[in-house]
Amino acid sequence: MSHALPVTPLDTLTAALRRALPVLPVVAVIALLGLPIAPTDEGGANFADAMSGLVVVCCAIHLVRARRRPLSTTAALVIGLPVIGIAVAAAGAADPAAGITGLARYLQIFVLVPAAVLLLVRDRRDFRLLAWSFIALALWQGAIGVHQYVTGTGASYQGEDVRAVGTFGPTDVMGMASVVAFGLVCAVALALGTCAARQRAVAVLCALALLPPLALSFSRGAWIATAVACGAQLVLAGLRRAVKVGAVVAAAGVILVGGLGVGTAMLQERITSITQVADAPDQSVVDRYTMWAAAVDMWREHPLTGVGLKGFPDNRDGHASLALSSGSDIAGAGAAYHKQPLLSPHNMYLLVLGEQGLIGLLALVGSWLALLVRTLRGLVRVRRTPPDTAGPRLPSGRTPPGTDCALVACGLLVWQLVDFVYADIGGPSTVLTAVVFGLIGWWALMDPSTPADVDATAPASSVPEEAAAR
Hints:
Oligomer: single chain
Mean pLDDT: 81
Number of strands: 4
Distance between the termini: 29 Å
Order of helices and strands: HHHHHHHEEHHHHHHHEEHHHHH
């Protein structure tokens, strides 16, 4: 009589890696963003960008080997819609070389990498793996940011080197804030949408741990976007749960601000400045308003096609008022003091409007709105899934499988749409935006009739024997 060999931890790890092999290149993109960025790097390509190109190649090889149809008609239309405006704006660029560079960047962030991520993610286990990868990167960058604040080695803010920027340096002050916000949104979704007590507890702890570095980033746009996204997740998860989680967040805020003294004068002043953007705005807000007006003025001159990709810097001075400063002060976090020129309006919608015109804006925003509608439909579909297709019958009041993935996709998309009011693409962290849109696209555009839409988190042993027999 033969006996089966015992399964060792190494065997389990090997099996898990083999199973996750197609999505590991995407995990590598996220992991590479934890590497230090040179202080002199002005936003050029980095290791993560190179890895994102490899992700596209891996996806193409995987499709050829598996002989799969790349995308459904709906997915191809939604993902490929921005190509229209991007191509027209690239053809109309005053500098052909800049137009080609802009074309490659836009295709990377909004088309190619999202499509590759969408195709490499096969089921909810892959989706959750990427969500936890976002959280791990956020914890790493957040820990570095808190250390920078405590030791005074961060980027310069109001004459002190206390701004938490992680490994991204002072030239990309939004980098760490975006990474931490993505991780926080994922953690909140996993805490709200899972039935597993251990995973829920870990997700809650991660969310609480990410609050201090987000606060110490001094990024008002990231604060607003995170508050809106997490609020939307709470509402979508249910009002009763929203009240409970809101109470926990309020208690954590009291502890952080009152007990641990996180609410420094600088932080309180930064929070107060959010409500003073109209009455007594600081110079950064004045610069932003001035560049917004310049982008709108460019669009008025070229309403359909804009001034062309990468055309905002060359046309800025001809459309901006004298209120615009010479640039942002950059110092700290390993960089010497210098002025960083203001080369974009820090508003994705107005940047697209000014450089790509109405054609580009309608194409890009139309794609995002289609993702939003289909993402919400996916959440509704999960909640209405009959018990016999979602696995064992759930006790009354239990969260349906897949709710966590739906909340991750909804939260990330809402965060990105709100943040684009205060930011645009640019900097080493931009490639993470492409991965985010890929995750959102998988949830929004996957075929509900395929096995990829069946929850695969529970091991077979967790299914009752009588159900397995049937």
